[in-house]
Amino acid sequence: MSERGSYAKGRAKRDEIVDVALDLFARMGYDRTSFREIARLAGLSQAGLLHHFRTKEALFLEVLRRRDDRNEQHYDENLGHPVSVAGLVKIVRHNSDEPGLVRLYVAMSAESTAPESPTRQFFEQRYEKLLSDVALDVAKKQQSGEIAEGLDPAAVASLLVAAADGLQVQWLLNPDRFDMGEQLGLLSKILSGVSSEIRK
């Protein structure tokens, strides 16, 4: 097999592993998903799995990247463009269908706050992009009159993203009595109402 063919085959197997892990985390949860089960369903030994992902953290991060990419493709109206406010609300609403992935995200984002955490760089870059995307959409909404110009787009974006993360924790603690998508949508509506008051 050519070097290019070998690389393509390895890339395909790596993608298959991530797909398997993504499905297991979504259904079984972070704590109940084992490396051994991921390897088995991907048709590999544990040693074979470690050839593609040397640590669990590396695989978990790739799963979160795949989740982010999939969510943007399926749940954001600005496909191929920065994440919008409406897209963020839709993504959070969809997350209620995948408690295992939400739990994985919450656990790893908390762990990333440690200076030596291997996940820190991923989350720093993720937040930087997400905040920039949402702030850009807020600025567009200010131009159209949906959000008051007197509000700082970066501050509004930070509040929305912080609310999304905090709502996920509340939902994990009380999923039967808490709708995080509706709550974040309410905050978005409140911003529009605040804008109307500011313009008066």
C-alpha Rg, in Å?
Answer: 19 Å
CATH superfamily of the largest domain: Tetracycline Repressor, domain 2
What is the quaternary state of this protein? single chain
Q: Tally the beta strands.
A: 0
Number of helices: 9
- How many strands, what sense, and barrel or not for the largest sheet? none
Write down the CATH class of the largest domain. Answer: Mainly Alpha
What's the shape? elongated
Helix/sheet category? mainly alpha
Helical content (DSSP H or I, runs of 4+): over 70%
What fold name stands as the CATH topology of the largest domain? Tetracycline Repressor, domain 2
Distance between the terminal alpha carbons, to the nearest Å?
70 Å
- Series of secondary-structure elements, N-terminal to C-terminal: HHHHHHHHH
